Amino acid sequence: GVFRPGHGDYAYQEKYGVWDHRGGGRASARETAIRVVAGAVAYQCLRKIMPLTIQACVVQIGVAPHCGPIDWSYAAQNILSAPSKETEAKWIQYLDTLTQKQDAAGARIYVEAIGVPAGLGEPVYDKLSADLAKAWMSINAVKGVAIGDGFDVVTQHSSGHRDPLTPTGFGSNHAGGILAGISNGMPITGHIAFKPTSSIQQPIDSCTVGGEACTVSVSGRHDPCVAVRAPAIVEAMTSLVLIDHALRYYGTRIFQTTDATAPTSSKR
C-alpha cells in the first residue's frame, strides 16, 4: 500500500498496524452522518426548553471571503452554503478555477446559537467554550476554532474588547456569548477552519508501507472544497454540546425564567 499524504493513513498504520486503503474509514466525512441525525433530535429537544436558534454557513473559501450581512434564508438553500447570492456566484467561479488546476481550497464556517440562557457551563474543567471547541475540532478536516472575536483579540486593546454591560444587557458581543466558560445570555458565536481536502490529482511524494519512495495522486471525483457540506455538521455538534449542558441544569434557576419562543434571526 501507498500512504496518501494529508490523510490518516500513516498515523493509523503507526497506531494500529493497518488502515483502510479504500478510503478514509473513520476519518471519512461519511462518519458524520449519524452526528447530524443525533444533532437534529437534540435541537428539537433544546427548543422545548429554551428560545434557541442555531445556524451556520460558509463565510470564506480560500482567499475569497464574504463581505456584508448574512442572508440566512439564502444560506440555508444554496449549494455552497454561501451567505448571499453574489458571494455564491463569485465562489463558483473561484472553485471552477481550482478544479481546472486539479486543486482544492479550505474554508471558514460561522456558527451562532441565539437564545441560550446565561449559566450553562462550568468555570474550570467543563467550560462551555472548551466543550464546544472539542466538539467542533472533532469534525473531520477541522484545523482551528475560535469563539467570539477569536484570533482578532490579538490586535485588540482592552478598551475596545470589553463588552459594556447595562441594566438592559450587553452593548456588544466580542466574548461570543461566553465568559469564564459560562454562557452570558448573548448569542454564542464561533468560527471553524476547515483544511483543503488532501485528495487531489496533483502528484506528491510519498512512500509505501515497506518504506520505498514513490509518488501518488488520488483519482476519482473530489470536492474542490469539502467545507461547503459541513454547516449541518457544525450545527449538529453545537446542538449536542448544548443539550448535554442543558440537561445538567434543567430544573434549576437557569431555566425558571426561560421563554421558549425561539427567535428567527440573528442580531449579528
Which tags fit this structure?
alpha+beta; 11 strands; single chain; globular; 18% strand; two-stranded antiparallel ribbon; five-stranded antiparallel beta sheet; 268 residues
Describe this structure in words.
There is one protein chain. The chain has 268 residues and is α+β, with helices and mostly antiparallel strands. The chain contains seven helices and eleven strands. The strands form four sheets. A five-stranded antiparallel β-sheet has the order 2-1-3-9-4. Strands 5-6 form a two-stranded antiparallel sheet. Strands 7-8 form a two-stranded antiparallel ribbon. It is globular and about 65 Å long.
Tally the helices.
7
pLDDT averaged over residues: 91
Largest sheet: 5 strands, antiparallel
Separation, N- and C-terminal Cα atoms: 49 Å
* Assembly type: single chain
Helix-strand topology string: HHEEHHEHEHEEEEEEEH
Strand order of the largest sheet: 2-1-3-9-4
Low-confidence stretches: 260-268
Write the layout of secondary structure elements.
Layout: H1 9-16, H2 33-49, E1 53-61, E2 64-65, H3 72-75, H4 85-100, E3 107-114, H5 128-137, E4 142-147, H6 158-161, E5 165-166, E6 169-170, E7 178-179, E8 182-183, E9 188-194, E10 204-207, E11 213-216, H7 231-249
Antiparallel strand pairs: 1-2, 1-3, 3-9, 4-9, 5-6, 7-8, 10-11
Helix pairs in contact: 2-7, 5-7
